[in-house]
Design a protein that fits this description.
The protein has helices at residues 3-23, 95-112, 167-184; strands at residues 42-47, 52-57, 61-63, 69-75, 78-86, 117-126, 129-140, 143-154, 157-165, 186-187. By secondary structure, it is of the alpha+beta class. It has a single domain, classed as Mog1/PsbP, alpha/beta/alpha sandwich (Protein Transport Mog1p, Chain A). The protein has a seven-stranded antiparallel beta sheet with strand order 3-4-5-9-8-7-6. A three-stranded antiparallel beta sheet has the order 1-2-10. The radius of gyration is 18 Å and the shape is globular.
Length: 192
């Protein structure tokens, strides 16, 4: 096969490969047999449109997405996503309101996916905003994934920050990447 034909084939296959990575449908070893890359340093990303900043691995791919998704960051089968949803109802702010939000979230995810397992949940403060964290084992586009999802409540919006990977590699990716990215998340501009 000539070099121009190979380049054309790579360009034609790239969108399908990106869709596999973002959908979680890649094999446990990742697309084309790649495992999630260990980070070689971190870089800052600022999403001014939603007033969020975070630090992500320098060598992980950052993908352009459409609202309500803000970003998708991936390496092999490990994925980080950030979403922003408008909330027509007041956001929970007090501990009892956050506890009620946690109960409602668990009920909703179990209704959506009866096979989903909630491993743990907790109420958090994420850079001054109330949040609910769910740790789950679930099917994402047909593949089992362990996930940490933080629902962060800011005035008029809910930010959903999700990190997931195959269970076999989750602990390594959690230690090397996910926990560091989660800890780096900052809300800018006076809580949106």
């Amino acid at each position: 096969m000539s070099e121009p034909a190979r380049r054309l084939l790579r360009r034609a296959c790239a969108p399908a490969l990106l869709a596999l990575v973002l959908s979680g449908a890649a094999t446990a070893a990742g697309p084309l047999g790649r495992a999630s890359a260990a980070p070689r340093g971190f870089r800052s990303l600022v999403f001014r449109n939603v007033e969020v900043a975070l630090r992500v691995p320098r060598d992980w791919a950052v993908h352009a997405v459409n609202p309500p998704m803000v970003t998708a960051i991936a390496s092999g089968p490990a994925t980080i996503t950030l979403w922003r949803f408008w909330r027509p109802i007041p956001t929970p702010a007090t501990r009892p309101q956050l506890a009620a939000a946690r109960a409602a979230l668990i009920k909703a995810v179990r209704e959506r996916d009866p096979k989903l397992r909630v491993l743990s949940s907790q109420l958090l403060d994420v850079d001054g905003a109330g949040a609910v964290e769910l740790r789950t084992l679930e099917l994402i586009d047909g593949s089992v994934r362990e996930a940490v999802t933080e629902h962060i409540y800011v005035p008029a919006f809910e930010l959903v920050f999700e990190e997931y990977a195959p269970p076999a590699s989750f602990r390594r990716v959690e230690r090397e990447v996910f926990a560091k990215v989660r800890d780096s998340l900052r809300l800018l501009g006076g809580r949106l």
